[in-house]
């Protein structure tokens, strides 16, 4: 299923990035671009990150990645 229409990123691709260490929506965005344009997918990305890594804050739901603080 496509999660991010702007970048044609699937749920599988997002899960792969989380499995490979992405722990926030911002990190997923930097890895593949998901959530970095219109922001409509950010809430779903945050849910997926939280589900895969429950201790992660997953970024700020509903806030476009470009407006979220950078996680280094
Ligand atoms: S749908 Fe993901 S940034 Fe637009």
Q: Within the largest sheet, what's the order of strands? A: 1-2
As residue ranges, the low-confidence spans are none
**Helix count?**
3
Q: Describe the biggest sheet?
A: 2 strands, antiparallel
Using the alpha-carbon principal axes, give the shape.
globular
Order of helices and strands: EEHHH
CATH architecture: Orthogonal Bundle
Structural class of the secondary structure composition? mainly alpha
Alpha carbon gyration radius = 10 Å
End-to-end span in angstroms? 29 Å
> Could you estimate the helical fraction of the residues in percent?
25-40%
Mean pLDDT: 83
Number of domains: 1
Supply the CATH superfamily name.
BFD-like [2Fe-2S]-binding domain
Strand content is 5-15%
CATH topology category name: Arc Repressor Mutant, subunit A
Model description:
The chain has a single domain (2-65), classed as BFD-like [2Fe-2S]-binding domain (Arc Repressor Mutant, subunit A), CATH 1.10.10.1100. The chain has three helices and two strands. It has helices at 11-19, 25-32, 42-52; strands at residues 2-4, 9-10. A two-stranded antiparallel ribbon has the order 1-2. The longest helix is centred in the middle third of the chain and has 11 residues, at 42-52. It starts with a strand and ends in a 20-residue tail after the last helix. Bound molecules: FE2/S2 (inorganic) cluster (FES). FE2/S2 (inorganic) cluster (FES) binds at residues 4-6, 34-41. FE2/S2 (inorganic) cluster (FES) binds next to loops.
């Amino acid at each position: 299923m496509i999660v991010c229409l702007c970048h044609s990123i699937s749920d599988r691709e997002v899960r792969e990035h989380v499995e490979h260490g992405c722990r926030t929506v911002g990190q997923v965005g930097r890895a593949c671009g998901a959530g970095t344009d219109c922001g409509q997918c950010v809430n779903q990305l945050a849910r997926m990150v939280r589900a895969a890594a429950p201790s992660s804050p997953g970024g700020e739901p509903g806030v476009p990645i470009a407006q979220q603080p950078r996680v280094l």
